[in-house]
Amino acid sequence: MKAIVLHCKPGSRFHLGKYAPDRDSDTALADTGEIIHSDTLFAALANNWNDSIGNADELVALFSSGQLSISSGYHCLESPTGAFTWFLPKPISFNLFQPEGGADYKRFRKISYISAGIWQQLVNPGSITAQQDIIVIDKRFALLASEVKPLENIPAGKRQELAEKLKICSTETLPKVEVRNALPDSRIYQFSVTEIANNAKYMEGLQVHYYFLLQTNGDMPAETKQKVDLAINLLQYNGIGAERSTIGHFENISTIDNWTMEVSSPHPTMACSIGLFNPKQPTDIYLGKPILRGGRRLGAQGRQWLKTVRMVQEGAIISNSATGMLASVKPDDKNAGPFLRNGTAFTLPVHQNWIP
After folding, report:
1. How many CB atoms lie within 10 A of CB 125?
2. Is the pLDDT of residue 248 over 80?
3. From CA 235, how far away is CA 237, in angstroms rounded?
4. CA angle 66, 261, 324 (to 5 degrees)
5. What pTM did the predictor assign?
6. Given this model, what pLDDT does residue 27 score?
7. In sequence order, which residues have a C-beta less than 8 Å from that of residue 253 and are 6 or more positions away?
8. What is the structure's pLDDT at 346?
């Protein structure tokens, strides 16, 4: 397994679109996600492949056969020492536990992401907000102080005080006007972006990036691997998300080989999905929350929309043997090309105590 780090400059902005049900009021840009869903990453790789390598059907076949799979893109911290702290989605099963030590339940529920260090060592989910070596950034990102060396050396009583000043990302909504449309009825619309935090004021050298995990299964020809690497590296130049003429770009891309996740006493039949998941059968899911994907308008003034598909959000507990599948959101127009959403499974093992 590899971790692909999408290095961001402080203040980098991205628009990571969400499904907009009100099609005729141009609300598609009014809301943004904070993570890069696996179907968005898949679409970006397919576009890079199609534009610069060849027919993207070859890439689609790799995902359909299970030879290649990717997680969604999450935030990571790069400390001044160059070490990384990897954030992952909090498994949805955590919400079935009560916090230990009289901790505030609302604070416990607000945590949306846990670090790889917590994932590996946590036995009881209810203890997250009770352990002194665990700190929470932005009220949503929990990590071990030992994962960021400068934090490890700060007295326990002051760690959370500093953590409350640190940020991972924020959302900003800006008014924009359709400057490309010269018609008299051009109107102002709302445009939301996710902005990468700048923590230099509080901890020099602490940087926030995106990353995603990539897994290959079986033998893949060297030429195919080179094509996959090229499609990934082109993300630096082509960016991701909407409005890529001005935002959505990365400073550079690096690869961490042999990224692993080991859990003591893993659950024998269940795992946690860390990408969007499109089940083949209902028994693939144990616990999950639905999300609508697709629905985008084709062309700036087009009157056709992609169909929508209901997937399962990251953090779901699913069968560790589930494979998932790609979903078609092709419009009714027979002349329209294929439009696919990636819902193939990408899972990590979970401790057996995490599933009540």
Report:
1. 26
2. yes
3. 5
4. 25
5. 0.92
6. 52
7. 4, 5, 6, 7, 232, 233, 235, 236
8. 98
Indicate the residue type of 141: F
Q: Compute φ and ψ for 12, nearest 5 degrees.
A: -60, 145
* Helix residue ranges, H only, 100-189: 105-110, 116-121, 149-152, 156-163
Cα 138 to Cα 353: distance, rounded to the nearest angstrom: 27
The segment with the largest mean pLDDT, out of 47-61, 130-144, 159-173, is: 47-61
Query: What residue type is assigned to position 29 of the chain?
Result: L
Looking at the chain, the whole-number percentage of residues with pLDDT higher than 90 is 65
Rounded Cα–Cα distance for residues 232 and 339 (Å):
20
pLDDT at 104: 81
Question: Which residue has tokens 């790889």?
Answer: 116
CA distance 15 to 18: 9
CA 245 – CA 202 distance, rounded (Å): 32
Enclosing H/E stretch for 222 = helix 222-233
Tokens of 72: 């969604």
Checking 146-155 for CB contacts under 8 A at 24+ apart, the result is 146/117, 147/77, 147/83, 147/85, 147/115, 147/116, 147/117, 148/77, 148/79, 148/83, 148/85, 148/206, 149/79, 149/80, 149/81, 149/83, 150/79, 150/80, 150/203, 150/206
291 pLDDT above the threshold of 80: yes
Q: Report the alpha-carbon distance of residue 321 to residue 71 in Å, rounded.
A: 16
pLDDT 10s digits, 317-347: 999 999 999 999 888 776 666 789 999 999 9
